[in-house]
Amino acid sequence: MALTLFSDPPETLVAELLAGVRAHNAAHLGAETSRPLAVEVRDAQGRLLGGLSGRTIYRQFLIDLLWVAEDARGQGLGRQLMAAAEAEARQRGCVAAQLDTLDFQAPHFYAKLGFETVGRVSGIPANPERFFLLKRYA
Predict the structure, then answer these.
(1) CA distance 121 to 98
(2) pLDDT digits (tens, 9 = 90+) for 9-39
(3) Which of 13, 101, 114, 116 has its CB 3.0 to 4.6 Å from that of 105, i.e. a possible disulfide?
(4) For residue 47, what is the domain's CATH number?
(5) Residue 25 domain-assigned (yes or no)
(6) Where does the N-acetyltransferase domain start and stop, copy by copy (predicted)?
């Protein structure tokens, strides 16, 4: 047996690990139907004002990131991005959305959109509190 540590893992290793996880998941959940889902908003000059990226898998919408440019905040763009992405997730058959956020980012924003805190990580020195959020679709 040989244990190797990588700071920059080879793509082949990551692909092999992913294949192993997918095979294990398929044995428990059936065939994977993971699909990327992203939405963006740009101004008239083509500058990115914000966007959202995630994926739908096993009837859930997993949100990886949401960002709105500093000068475009407070105009409802985040809410519009979320609404568009969640509408598509529901079209794909999702019954819930999940994400995590830090205390200085947007836990209150997501709460206004109907997300509930289902977990927290706090008390780690020099680290912000992390919230794990879930929104069930009716």
Answers:
(1) 16
(2) 999 999 999 889 888 988 888 887 889 999 9
(3) 101
(4) 3.40.630.30
(5) no
(6) 1-138
Does 121 reside within a domain? yes
3-state secondary structure of 77: helix
Spell out the residues 6+ positions from residue 120 whose beta carbon is closer than 8 angstroms to its own: 129, 130, 131, 132
Cα 52 to Cα 37: distance, rounded to the nearest angstrom? 8
The total of structural domains in the chain comes to 1
- Asked if residues 50 and 67 have their Cβ atoms less than 8 Å apart, the reply is yes
CA distance 12 to 77: 38
Residue 11 lies in a domain: no
SS3 65: strand
- 126-130 own/partner pairs: CB under 8 Å, 24+ apart: 128/102, 128/103, 128/104, 129/102, 129/103, 130/100, 130/101, 130/102, 130/103
